[in-house]
Design goal:
CATH architecture of the largest domain: 3-Layer(aba) Sandwich
Radius of gyration: 22 Å
CATH class of the largest domain: Alpha Beta
Oligomer: single chain
Structural class: alpha/beta
Number of domains: 2
Mean pLDDT: 89
Number of strands: 27
Strand order of the largest sheet: 3-2-12-11-13-14-15-16-17-22-21
Helix content: 25-40%
Length: about 450
Amino acid sequence: MQTVPLLAHDSAGSVVAYRGGRPITAGQFMADAASVAALLPSGSHVLNACGDRYRFAVGLAAALITNKVSLLPPTYVPEVVRQLRAFAPDAFCLTDDAASEIGLPIVRYPTALAAALDAWQVPSIPGNRLAAYVFTSGSTGTPVPHRKTWGQLAQSVRVEADRLGLDAARPHALVATVPPQHMYGFESSVLVALHSGQCICAEHPFYPADIASVLAAVRRPRALVSTPIHLRTLLAAGIPLPAVDLIVCATAPLDARLATDTEQRFGAPLLEIYGSTETGQIASRRTVDGPEWRLWPRVELVARGDRIWAQGGHIDAATALGDVVEITAPGRFLLRGRTADLVNIAGKRSSIAYLNHQLNAIPGVLDGAFFLGDEPGHQSATGIARLGAVVVAPGLTVEIILRQLRERLDPVFLPRPLLIVDSIPRNSTGKLPRAALRSFAARG
């Protein structure tokens, strides 16, 4: 049976993480993992809710050492936790939040841990070992589990490390604005570090000043792992930004103008990752070089009916993509929008992603999102659903924004209503929850 080491770091003194700019060695990491492993109860499923990225990684390692499966749901609201209990009745929660009220048996991350191990030994984990269930929200609201084996995860992030130019001989400090429980954050801020000898940064900065502070505290080379909305907000803040050597972006296609502005501001290349919870990451591109995506080796896209399926490589079974994809050449494709985002109004088709792109390209717009009202009151007199939009644009008026949109969109796609707000309540990965969209639709 093929095994995969828990760490790719080659010595006990190798730096595996930073907290507050202070290095944490691989020897200390293994000692911490052993200490946490000794605290875990007999249940075989652990909800790893640690907000500190290093502690999350230690909890993941402790679970693997003790043959437990990590549960990574999209949220910890009581209804989701109740559904997790039904899925895994023996589940318990590992947390570093002293005030946590998650409705599961709680294991607190210890405040005192053992000293670094003198004897350097990295365990190897069977590649077919089930490492995690990562959950999507599901069309009914019930979390849908997706199995991730240790070998699958390792195979995928090793390709990512190669695409991003991450080398164990010159390890990067990975500063991430996304949580480690999200599939993108899981792969690109934790797993890629463990499997390619890079350095995890414990912090989860959100505000521009915090991002700049965490970046400045770690040595170069350093990489910023982020999202389009975080990058847009960071650049708009107008604060001094430390130099970085790489920027990684995912969760939504990045506007080419924002990609160019980000590269110029940081003086570093920006690479996008494409993937999903179901497939994991499967492609990348440097946005300023063009819109085409390059697939991971041995992963292929196949058209079946009106859907595109991903298969091969680290993907266990052929999986339908949630995006409209145009295959341009072997191993290359273009994104044309989300399948679920396609809208047809008066016989004309577009996608919410395209409409959002045009809205956010208007000078002076800091953030914006279209929504399709599905409530009876959010329809025209003919019964056709109407598009609305919400926008953060200090200094602009509804009339100015609509005038700009008329130059970019067919009139049937102009938003009615267009709401100007102070902020849009996005989640930690920059996405806009359905409940927030419904509240905006109700206001219209």
